[in-house]
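Troubleshooting log. The previous run stalled partway through. Resubmitting the same four chains, unchanged.
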Amino acid sequence: MAEALEGRRSTRRTATLASLAAELGVSRTTVSNAYNRPDQLSPALRRRVLDTARRLGYPGPDPVARSLRTRKAGAVGLLLTEALSYAFRDPVAIQFLEGLALACEDNGSGLLLVPVSPEAEDVGAVARAGVDGFVVYSMPDDDEHFAAVLERPVPVVVCDQPTDVPDVDRVGIDDQAAMVELAQHLAGLGHRRVGVLCMRLSLDRNDGFASVSRQDSARYEVQRRRLAGLRDGFTAAGVDWSTVPVVERFDHTEAAGAHAFDQLAERHPDVTAVVCTSDILALGALRGARAAGRDVPGDLTITGFDGVPAAERAGLTTVRQPSLDKGRAAGELLLDRGDRQRSRTLLLPTELMVRQTSGPPKS
Amino acid sequence: MAEALEGRRSTRRTATLASLAAELGVSRTTVSNAYNRPDQLSPALRRRVLDTARRLGYPGPDPVARSLRTRKAGAVGLLLTEALSYAFRDPVAIQFLEGLALACEDNGSGLLLVPVSPEAEDVGAVARAGVDGFVVYSMPDDDEHFAAVLERPVPVVVCDQPTDVPDVDRVGIDDQAAMVELAQHLAGLGHRRVGVLCMRLSLDRNDGFASVSRQDSARYEVQRRRLAGLRDGFTAAGVDWSTVPVVERFDHTEAAGAHAFDQLAERHPDVTAVVCTSDILALGALRGARAAGRDVPGDLTITGFDGVPAAERAGLTTVRQPSLDKGRAAGELLLDRGDRQRSRTLLLPTELMVRQTSGPPKS
DNA sequence: GTGAAAGCGCTAACAG
DNA sequence: CTGTTAGCGCTTTCAC
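Second attempt completed without errors. Output:
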């Protein structure tokens, strides 16, 4: 980045507040006031200062120097699970971003997307971010970037995962309870032979079946809890969870969902319901199932999680979560003045959306 | 923002590089080197420095102070047409963002979304952004925020509009030529009675027909050029452009597109083709047309512009533009070292995608 | 209404 | 390999 930006425009690095003051024969204070406290000087003098500034090409107080002095950067840092660019492919993340952006806007704060290189050791980006606080979106347990955030002496708000971090506010949903509810819905319809499609459970790629022990030790708390909710709900309905096939996918795409469905269906052709831990996966599964000639919900039930717009269009039965509200709440939690006593946790409501991809089992 | 972030965590503002050095009995340089130039001191000493830092709760060099000293912020600022949050609703903007994020990632730069309040005078946010350069996405002519960006002594890259800004690089497409091609396609099919749906042409809301003079004086250059392209293309086919109805919409949503279609169809029921200057509008028009019982493309042709995923799914005939590439190119143009001589303009290719919403006129 | 003094916390020559 | 010297550009009491 060093010389990268040494361009045409940047060469006109010219006047400073001090040189302007000298030129005008006034003190630096006065010039500073002209910009920051217009009421502290006569309008005439202020006008003179600003005019001279323009003539000298003085661009106004340097933002970085001001930040150093005032001890505030005017920006919120955002740390994301994946590469920065991935966020713009995931509809849930996009909605979260929109909500967060809204909160920042209201506050006049900038939103700094912290570059987290692919698998980078480069924790440096976190240390180098000039921000007044961090919002951390859905990180795996024991993430080093997150650890780096915690090192910084600024407030932090986590969305979703990980939970139970001392001195850190959090906003999320009750993933486990939401899944219990979904399981009850399906069990109520009569489903007993179910299969599950879930997102990655650890940092190492495992595109295939996930054992119960792998499920329980998942490094992604959200997935762990969603699976736990399904286990609780189905177990209560008399299903032996250890017999329930869970297929994991590292990539979070519809294609992955479709392929995971094939894998599940091949080995367990008898399942009557496929529960997916995300809408994207479910949408893919739906496509895969229909491509395989299955009738949904006629002879197969498929459900998702998240409540993205595409799921609604597809009539997918799913659990809706307020992604945008999570973003806004995270921003507000970070930026809101006031009662910042002990760490707060905000759990937002979810809603089971029964639509057209779930029904009673065929037989 | 001031006290907003004075929280639990932030109170542990403690050691500085200087106090650490004092504690260790070494110079500040040494401590600085421990962080920035590990090769400049013995591993043993470095370890001692780092250990003591941890013990004292020293979080490492303050990013803002470092930025002041090194004269680089490590971040790129992004200025967007609308409120920050709008960007996350527009699929074209999202793709642009993704591309830009990719370029930033590669460079290890942060991406700072500059908060531009709704209709804010608050140009201050631009002045206050600690960034090494700005990417400006599709701004109207004579925008004051953009003007504020130009005041800053840093490099600037504009995407799309406005064009012809001195000393500023630009990336975009040839909107006019792309529309000429589309017009030729439609004229070739035999369409002579056409109608147009376009995005806002100025900052004041005008949800209705736009006169030729309003078209020509549009403050949004992209819309101006797309309309000009249509005019050129259809005029060449013998159409009197002054008779072509152009319906404008301030909001860029499918609902607006559908409603605009109704408005057009009511007053000009005889048009055989509706050309929209964006896919969103076209998707809305398509919905409106079908809701009105029209057969597309049977008795009505509808086209879009942009090439968003939803347009592909809908089989919409449109002009595809490489939104992601534009974002990446903008980032690279800003960050790439090297030949930064005079201002560069990068025009990316577009492609006419003839799909299932265009066909010969009915009669 | 205006100025003087005192750094914010850090890095970068350049000596040693 | 380590320390000295000089600020980066600005804001902010606190007197005048």
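Takeaways: The radius of gyration of chain A is 26 Å. Residues 26-30, 33, 40-42, 45, 65, 67-71 of chain A lie near DNA strand C (CB under 10 Å from a C1').
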